[in-house]
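Possible race condition, two jobs.
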Amino acid sequence: MEPTAVTHPSATRSAGIDGRRDPWEVVEQLRGVAPHTHRAILQVAQRTGYAYGTVSALRWLGARVPADVQREDLTLSHHFVIARLPVEQQRRRLAEAAAEGLSGAALRRRIEAEGGR
C-alpha cells in the first residue's frame, strides 16, 4: 500500500500505515543516502514493510525537501508537489497550502497555473 495523506507527525507515529513505520521516519532514515543505493533502499523496505518503489520515492523526497521545510500539518502529497522548487519557494507554497486549506492536488494546480513557481 502506497503512503497517502499521512500527516507528519501522525497519530500513528510509531506504527505508521497498517502497522508500518510512519513514512516520515523512513524519509529521515534515508536522508543522505546516494540516489541509486539499491541495497540501502531494499534494506529499509524490508524493515518497514513498504514496497521498494515507495521507499525509493521517500528517499527522493528527503533529498529534495529539507527537514526544516517539512510541515506537520500537511500531507506527503503536498511535499511531493513542491519538492522540485527552490527551498524558499517550498516554504512559501507549503505555508500557502496550510493557510488556505489546499489539498495536494489543488496546490499542484495552483503552481502549474502560475508557471511552476
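Job #2 (started ~2 s after job #1):
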Amino acid sequence: MGSRQSRCESFQKKECNHVCVAIEQCQITCPALAILADPMRGAALKPDGLDALEAYVPQLEAVHIDGAGHNIRREQFARYMEVVRNFLDKVAVIA
C-alpha cells in the first residue's frame, strides 16, 4: 500500500457533511476561497463544513452564490467568474 493511505489512516479526522478535515495536518497559510452554493440545490459544502474549514483556515474567504447547486460554475458561470476574478485581484495586491 502507498504511504498516502497510511498517512491518511493516522490523521485525526472530523466529518462535516462530506468534508473531511485532517485536523492535525491543516497548515494552509495562503489566501483561500470557498465558493458556496445552496444546500437545498445540492451544494457539497454545508454550513457546518464551512465552520470546520474556517476553524483551520482562518484566512478563508467564503462567498455564497445564490441559485447554484453542486455544479456552481456551470449553473451560475458569470457570477462564479466574478467571484474568482475578485478574489484573484485581491490576492495579486497582497502578493
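DSSP finds four helices and four strands in the chain.
Logs attached separately.
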